[in-house]
Amino acid sequence: MKNEFVEALANLQENEAITIAQKMLESGTMAEEVLELAQQGVDIIGKRYENGEYFLPDLIMAGEILKEIASLVKPRLSKGATARRLGKVLIGTVEGDVHDIGKNIVSFMLEVNGFEVLDLGVDVPPAKFVEAIKEFQPQVVALSGLLTVAFDAMKDTVNAIKEAGLRDKVKIMIGGGQCNENVRQYAGADAYGKDAVEAVALAKKWIGGE
Q1: In the β-sheet with 87-93, what is the strand arrangement from edge to edge?
Q2: What is the pLDDT of residue 4?
Q3: Which residue spans of the chain are classified as CATH 1.10.1240.10?
Q4: What's the per-residue H, E or C state across 7-23?
Q5: 210 pLDDT more than 50
Q6: What class does CATH assign to 2-80?
């Protein structure tokens, strides 16, 4: 059943993947294990996208399936899993950009790997990031953006965090289709994560989980 679940997710078979996830949970499979299996499926989806087998609509579909699976799994996560949280990550798509598939996959992968994640959604103004940092007190802030217009918004957000006197309290990563090292330097972020796996690795490195 576990292999079937990974395959169904990787093949974007929504109903089948969700049905198998439900059956696994009902038959006693730990919620954490279902998340680990989902991560395997996401890894395959990512590789197929990189190889040109999948396209943006496929990633959007994957994001929707993951949301459904996450809603099944989250209520069943053990208290121990919450207690083992490595740290807090604040994430959002910056102002002027409404793309969320990449952000959703990063959020999901961070949660799978033991982080407490606060997702502010899309088109998030700098002031909202600043307010959330004060309230949520994350160690890491992840700024997402697919469009080139997001670059200025990322820079504005980093500057707003600086002006609020919070810059030395958080590590900032950026990510998204058009992002690269030059954009990182322009925005004033600490690192650029090219995909969800790298985002998780950065968060672990910064928070000391690895």
Answers
A1: 115-119, 87-93, 140-144, 171-175, 191-192
A2: 96
A3: 2-80
A4: HHHHCCCHHHHHHHHHH
A5: no
A6: mainly alpha
Average pLDDT of the chain to the nearest whole number = 89
State mean pLDDT over 37-51: 83
Q: Which residues make up the CATH 3.40.50.280 domain(s) of the chain? A: 85-207
Q: Does pLDDT of 46 surpass 80?
A: no
Question: Identity (one letter) of the amino acid at 132?
Answer: A
**Cβ–Cβ under 8 Å, residues 158 and 188:** yes
Burial class for 192, CB neighbours closer than 10 Å (0-12, 13-18, 19+): buried
Beta carbons within 8 Å of 19's beta carbon, 6+ residues apart = none
Q: Tell whether domain 85-207 is in CATH 1.20.1280.170.
A: no
What count of residues does the chain have? 210
* Phi, then psi, of 102 in degrees rounded to 5: -65, -45
Amino acid identity, position 176: G
- Helix, strand, coil in percent for the chain, rounding step 5: 60, 10, 25
Task: Give per-residue pLDDT as tens, 85-113.
Answer: 789 999 999 999 988 877 887 887 788 77
Collapsing DSSP to helix, strand or coil, 195 comes out as coil
Q: Nearest-CA neighbor of 146 among 177, 117, 101?
A: 177
> Tokens at residue 196, please?
């969800």
Structure token digits, residue 181? 């090292």
